[in-house]
Amino acid sequence: MALFPLTSNFEGDFVLQLLPIDTENSMDEVAAAAAYHSVGRRVRARPGHIMRVRRQDADEFFPRDMKVSESGLKPTETIEIIWEESKAGLIDKLTKVFQ
């Protein structure tokens, strides 16, 4: 366990945040830490969506249960937190369309 700084670029936010993360945090925990500084302040909550983490400008998300220590991220590297529609949210939308 060690303190590990990452820079958060949260989707819809114009402010980059420096996050104090633990190397044993999962990517879901990293997303939650980033959301604490953005959601409800400059970014609206998006029910039916989950937050995913990726390296800045990457196409692929990190697995949600991957630990920071396993990710290959470097201190102060910028990560993007992106909203992804959950399966439940997608099913609800499709149900409404076909009713």
Feature tags:
99 residues, Ubiquitin-like (UB roll), 3 helices, alpha+beta, single chain, 4-stranded mixed β-sheet
Question: Would you give an account of this structure?
Answer:
This protein is α+β, with helices and mostly antiparallel strands. It has a single domain, classed as TmoB-like (Ubiquitin-like (UB roll), Roll), CATH 3.10.20. It contains three helices and four strands. The protein has helices at residues 27-38, 68-71, 87-97, and strands at residues 3-10, 17-22, 49-55, 78-85. The protein has a four-stranded mixed β-sheet with strand order 2-1-4-3. A hairpin with a 6-residue loop joins strand 1 (3-10) and strand 2. It is globular. The model has no long low-confidence stretch (mean pLDDT 90).
Q: TL;DR of this structure?
A:
This protein has 99 residues and is an alpha+beta fold. It has three helices and four strands.
Topology:
Elements: E1 3-10, E2 17-22, H1 27-38, E3 49-55, H2 68-71, E4 78-85, H3 87-97
